[in-house]
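This section describes the prediction task in plain terms. A model, or a person checking by hand, is given the sequence of a single protein chain and must write out its three-dimensional structure as a string of tokens. No templates, partner chains or ligands are provided. The sample shown here is typical of the held-out split.
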Amino acid sequence: MPELEIKDRNNNAAGKINLPEEIFGLGVKNDILHTAVTNFLANQRQGTHATKTKGLVRGGGKKPWKQKHTGRARAGSIRSPLWRKGGTIFGPQPRDYSYSMPKQAKKLALRAALSAKLTDGEITFIDDISIEKPRTKDMVSIIKNLGLEGQSLLIVIPEDNDAVKLSARNITGVHVTRTADLNAYSVVSHDRLLITKGAVAKIEEAETA
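The expected answer:
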């Protein structure tokens, strides 16, 4: 792959970076991306939805009327699903929606997502994001200088950095993640990516492990 330009926080050229072909140079792989995104969203579901069956609805212990000689249909409980305020038939019950996906498939999906973003010109590489103390104004300045304001933005850093995270916390649409937590869904769900030089090295290290 050709070398790409790295920017500094003032949007000035700060060198070149050679990206690994096997991570940022894949073709279109919509099938694996769809699988990974579906898996991620399914694993986020709480599955706490529930409706009451006739055995759970309060009341209805007494037979409404005798079985015969009333001229009415037989009824055993006022909480029958056929009755108003009765139980629900085949309603949703608590369940676990999560399921696992092969590790190599997850890696392939992440590579495909990063490759697609790079192909569409939606990744900006920065040498470093160094903020001494949490300050939203500093992060806003960096984003504005790079021309990334007004878009959903994912900032990828190599390790946890509280100053960076807290500085971006109050900016709408901006999220910060370390490379260890990066996944296909987080990549495709943002308009732009801002990746540090150190984060690229970490991604390459993790993907080739």
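For orientation: Residues 103-119 form the longest helix (17 residues).
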